[in-house]
Known about the structure:
521 residues, alpha+beta, Immunoglobulin-like, Heat Shock Protein 90, 54% helix
Amino acid sequence: MRLLPLNINPTKIFKSIIFILILFISLSFILQAREIVLDDIRINSVSIPDDFRNSIALSKTDSITFLYHLQIQNEEQNPFLFKITIQNDSQLSTFTLNKNIISYKRLPSGNYNIKISAFEPQNSWQTNELTINFIVDDILAEKFQKSIQDYHNRLASSISGTKKDEKSPFHIMSNSVVMITLSGLLLILIVASVIIKNNRKGLKKNQKMNENITNKKINGVTKMADKNKNSVSTEEYNKLALENENLKEELRSLREQIDALSSRAEELNKQNRELKESLDKISKSKSELEELQKQKDDLFAIIIHDIKNPAALIKSLVELLRSYDLTATEQQEVMEDIFVTTKKIVTLSQEVTKVLALESNTLKLNKEPINIKYVIEDVVKRNMIAANNKSIAMKSEVPDNLPEIEIDAQKIEEVIENLISNAIKFSNEGGKVKVTAKANSRELTVEVADNGLGLSEEDVTKAFQRGARLSARPTAGEHSSGFGLWIVKKMVEAHNGKVWVKSALGRGSTFAFSIPYNQNQ
């Protein structure tokens, strides 16, 4: 039985195979494309879900980290670098590095745009840029974090349902399509091979012999060509290997330069931060000096104002003595007025001297153990005459068993003197002043209470400021410089203590201070 030859056109089969191979090679080149893949975005080391990467917001205290890599399929990965460009509303910065992670922290408020790409150092290729946008805003950051928290809550509540859908039929179908496509290509190649093989079986014996002879000749020529080809390939390979080593050396040198530049940049950033801190300190010191200068100017203005009137009064009284014949009684009255006025000037001068001493930080304490009861009783006794002149009932309630405390008795006596004197000055006739003291295991507390004019809320906030002029005025025209309470505060704080006031307008005031027993803490 004779086999009939198949009606097959080898040319068409060959063209079909070539087309399939070209298609397959094109597909391979597509798969070999290089691109930057974003692996993760983290805020304060916490990953941001994919659904939120288009609306990222962080606060000025947050840190943001980007993780990425260069994807190259079916190709050996040659040495490359990443190029990073970050831009906000007013600045743009570009640099290169060989790491697949970059972080930023404490960014100023504003809109930001970061672009990431990769390139080969010899500029033979460069990828497209991966662009990420985010914003630095404290309010938006709080809303953004809340949205992510809500997302995680919803995800947690539905996790049991999503586990059933992990292997989706669409996922399986997608993988199946790829497998079927590759299987089809393989099947076409196998069928074509079988057809060609069957066609060759129908050739005559003599043609096969001629073909064998021809093949032997071709094989001989081919072996010689392969020998030359192998020789050329070895030479080219050695040349390429040498070039590759040179490129690696250049790349290593570039990386060292980049690392050196990065270290230098970090050093410059550190110096810049230190300079900024120094500038802030200088600016703060300048503001404090300007404020001190202003306060000093105010102080001298107050001093001049308070001295001017008594001095003018003394001048008038002296002229009165020189210009008129006065009786002995009248002369005695004028001399008494001069004495009182001069005493006011001396008192004011003493207070100014105290202010200047406190400002120059020359306040020294001579501490010794003492019972505060004796200090309070002495001060109350000295001020009893002034209280009686205004019919003010003044008393002290101090326990006998108070523990001794180490203080500068003279300074604390002056503190209590100021508080009691003020209580008498700002109380109406027939008022009451009460001095109390108490102690616990930590501190000693002294209070001076009166039922006088009291202070407004504004007066309470500035009561212990230097030179503060409060709205209340002494009820009998007594002198008040505005430095007394400030001096009280300074002397108590020198003992590591604190002062305060409780008052209401028209309902009296309670001034108090406390001093710890252990003043070294």
